[in-house]
Amino acid sequence: MRVGKLGGLVRKNLRRNLRYHLLAGAAILVGVAAFVFFLALGEGVRERVVGQLSGDLPETELEVKPRGMSLGVLQIDRPSFLGGKRFDDAALKKLEAIPGVKALYPTMNVRFPVMAWGKFFGKGVRTDLIVTGVDERAVDEELGRAAGFSWKEGQRVPIIASPHLLELYNSSFARMHDLPRVTEDLMRGLKFNLVLGKSYLAGTPDPAKVKTVGVEFIGFSRHSILLGATAPLSFIKEMNRRYAGQREASTYRSAILVAESASRAESIAQAVEKLGHEVASESRELARRVEAAVTGVTVLLSLVGLAMIAIAAVVIALTFSLTVVERRVEFGLLRAVGGTRLDVALLILAEAAVVGLLAGLLGLLGGFCASALADALAVSQLPDFPYKPDSFFLFPGWLLAAGPLLAILCCALGALFPARRAAGLDPAAALTER
Amino acid sequence: MIEIRGLCKSYPGAGAVLDGLDLDVAQGEAIALVGRSGVGKTSLLNVIGGLDRDFDGRVAIHGKELKTLSDRALADFRNQTIGFVFQGFHLLPHLTALENVLLPTFFESGERTDAEQRARRALERVDLPAAGNGYPGRLSGGQRQRLAVARALVSGPRLLLCDEPTGNLDQQTGEAILDLLVGLRESEGLTLVFVTHEARVSCRADRVLVLEGGELTGREDR
Q1: Which chain A residues are Cβ-neighbours of B149 within 8 angstroms?
Q2: Parallel, antiparallel or unpaired: strands B215-221 and B2-11
Q3: C or N terminus of chain B, fewer CB within 10 Å?
Q4: Are B94 and A9 inside 8 Å of each other by CB?
């Protein structure tokens, strides 16, 4: 049959069997709308939330830590009798010697109690604080040497924090404690004090050693720890030596390895594993975990959408089976006037495909509308949380094409059996209504 | 035009309805197949029309042996060579009269581009020139059968197979349809095969063949 004629006949046939096709189309529409909605939600959350979390370190940077062990929720360094290796200068030298490593920036934990006090928007604040040190060169590259991330005895200690902390503060902490939201510029230059050798949690091991140093916040850096503050490595090393001894002043928390190129990162990671350490990144791991959760939920919800489309395909199969019974004489006539079995089958499949296309496009529109509604509800009903996006949905091009195509495919599959049945009708029997 | 040798056709549970039937029909001839209900008249018509290939024997129409044709070739053959007129008209109610007439042209192979022109001419030939845009539901029984005749004519067939063409019509309308068919046969040189149990139909044929016991018996030449 000629394509143009087929189109005209399909249009007329669809109009005649509108009742059936509306029912079948509605089922497909709901299925496609749900499928598109859930996939767009997954894509949006992955892009806008996970993307933010995983954007900490570039692909050329690896954070290496001593191999740890897990005690329930607690992650600790592996003791030497269980194969744990001390992360000291010798270990760093071996890491730096790995082929493809361009630079190495060590980080170090503070090995004594620390608390912070100062004024924040006119309110006195006093709190325990987790402080780490990071090699000055890492921050110089990121914030520029002019930012002043270096320490000299007797001067204020420059401090940096993670950009995630700013987001966490603004979206949760500030709202909960009725504090104003802050910006990076507002925070830059904030001065407060660190009390070394004393904290609420660990107490004061040696009151004679308690000392107050002034610090100044100079900016946000991805090389800072997630919850806490980060100072120049030279300061932390010196304080560890004074408060905890030489051994603690030469035991590192981690090292950031900078690869010559992203393509070498994989081989460097393998060499790191061979040396008995592990590659880790808090934010990358967090992003990986969140992404896995998002992917899992997206897959699950998309399966719900797919199941709805599959049910719709069954509805299509049933409605087209009914129409085939009702249209026996018509199909017999088409054969009598020159149609082949294939022509009859193609007519049914084309009708199903058009129902699928229209329902798919409307389903896509439905998915759009539902996502806009969900975004509006999220803005008005959901509390702020870190990296809460303006829109939770993302409609990539492939998804815009996938909705209608899936609908067409399902309708065609649903109509396959009825089409075969119509094509296989004995025209003589159909015309004599035997 | 039609050459049938040793045609046997049976239905499961009903035995043989056609049993070694022989038939020759010349081009331009009009024959009437008569017989009791259920004797196999329509079955024979379906075999001749290539709608039923489940038979034994040799059936050649216009020199083509139907059993040897593929589904595509047989469909083309039906489209180009045979026109069907049914007792129940079998018009598609959701298509206009013109679209109903055009239906066979949808399946024409080749490059014929004058379909609408031919369809309008066919409507004129059955005296329904103004019915084109109307729907069959608005036409009288006689007009519907005329429309069905126009549809049968649109692709220029050589053979017109009519299954009880006046069965659903009153006597006057039936006569008019018969006049139309016989007139077409004379003007176009069509071969006509009527299946009927009405004497007024069979008397318009050149030959009346009685189907009985699966064979054509009691042949009557008018």
Answers
A1: none
A2: unpaired
A3: C
A4: no
Helix (H, G, I), strand (E, B) or coil at A179: coil
Q: Do B90 and A333 touch (CB under 8 A)?
A: yes
pLDDT in tens, A114-136: 999 988 877 888 889 999 999 99
Q: Does the predicted interface ipTM exceed a cut of 0.90?
A: yes
Q: Shortest CA distance to B38 belongs to which of B218, B215, B220, B212?
A: B212
Tokens for A161?
Answer: 């924090």
A227 and A342 fall within a common domain: no
Domain count, chain A: 2
Q: Are B197 and B32 in contact (CB under 8 A)?
A: no
Q: Which residues of A touch B (CB under 8 A)?
A: 1-2, 5-6, 8-9, 12-13, 15-16, 329-330, 332-343, 426-428, 431-433
Counted residue by residue, chain B has a size of 222
CATH of B2-221, one of 3.40.50.300, 3.80.10.10, 2.40.10.10, 3.10.129.10: 3.40.50.300
Range of the domain at A241: 61-280
**Which of the listed ranges A20-24, A178-182, A404-408 does the model predict with the highest average pLDDT?**
A404-408
Terminal alpha carbon distance of chain A: 27
CA distance A17 to chain B (A): 10
Q: Where are the domains of chain B?
A: 2-221
Inter-chain CB proximity A428 and B51 less than 8 Å: yes
How far apart CA A413 and CA A408 sit, in angstroms, is 8
Which one of A253, A280, A307 terminates a domain?
A: A280
